[in-house]
């Protein structure tokens, strides 16, 4: 009887350890240093001894410069290019208020680590543990976007987006 109990306890301990190991690999963080803030959803970081552009997964901030995407957004929303880019500048300024050049951040990835252009795609955590992607959406400076297969935090991002719209934050101010 004691032998059977020991085996069950050992089995449970092994299963718990395997679960913990799996969780650590799913939520493994990589350290990076912020080199620049490009706009409201893109950073340049020092990562693995080289500068990399990282697009923040699950968010879409307005463009801060007039470019092709700003033109597309203008056509889709009916807003002028000047309105689009001024909102983009506001989004970039918000990001610059909560993360600075030289700050250490922690990156975790989802299913796809890079996009078709070779840019990193990730979730960026600030040193205080806040998820930058979510903070930008919650403050109302970006929309939540769902881009399978990178959907690890889609529910959190959608909730943050709804909250920003409800309380008219950032871009949603009247």
Q: What can be said about this structure in brief?
A:
With 174 residues, the protein is of the alpha+beta class.
Query: Helices and strands: which structural class?
Result: alpha+beta
Radius of gyration: 20 Å
Q: What order do the SSEs take from the amino end to the carboxyl end, as H and E?
A: HEEEEHHEEHEH
Q: How is the CATH topology named?
A: OB fold (Dihydrolipoamide Acetyltransferase, E2P)
Overall average residue pLDDT:
89
The total tally of domains equals 1
Tally of individual helices: 5
Proportion of helical residues: 40-55%
Please list the strands of the largest sheet in the order they lie side by side: 1-2-3-6-5
CATH architecture: Beta Barrel
Distance separating the two termini? 71 Å
Q: Sheet bearing the most strands, described?
A: 5 strands, mixed, barrel
Which runs of at least 5 residues are low in confidence (pLDDT < 50)? Answer: 18-26
Please provide the count of β strands: 7
Bin the strand percentage.
Answer: 15-25%
Mass-distribution shape = elongated
CATH class category: Mainly Beta
């Amino acid at each position: 009887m004691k032998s059977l109990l020991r085996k069950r306890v050992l089995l449970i301990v092994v299963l718990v350890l395997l679960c913990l190991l799996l969780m650590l690999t799913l939520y493994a963080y990589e350290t990076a240093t912020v080199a620049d803030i490009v706009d409201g959803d893109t950073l340049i970081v020092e990562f693995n001894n080289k500068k990399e552009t990282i697009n923040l997964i699950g968010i879409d901030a307005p463009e801060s410069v007039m470019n092709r995407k700003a033109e597309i957004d203008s056509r889709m929303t009916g807003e002028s290019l000047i309105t689009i880019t001024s909102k983009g500048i506001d989004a970039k300024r918000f990001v610059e208020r909560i993360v600075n050049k030289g700050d250490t951040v922690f990156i975790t990835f989802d299913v796809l680590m890079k996009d078709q252009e070779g840019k990193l795609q990730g979730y960026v955590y600030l040193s205080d543990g806040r998820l930058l992607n979510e903070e930008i959406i919650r403050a109302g400076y970006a929309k939540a976007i769902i881009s399978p297969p990178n959907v690890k935090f889609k529910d959190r991002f959608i909730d943050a987006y709804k909250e920003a719209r409800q309380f008219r934050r950032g871009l949603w101010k009247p």
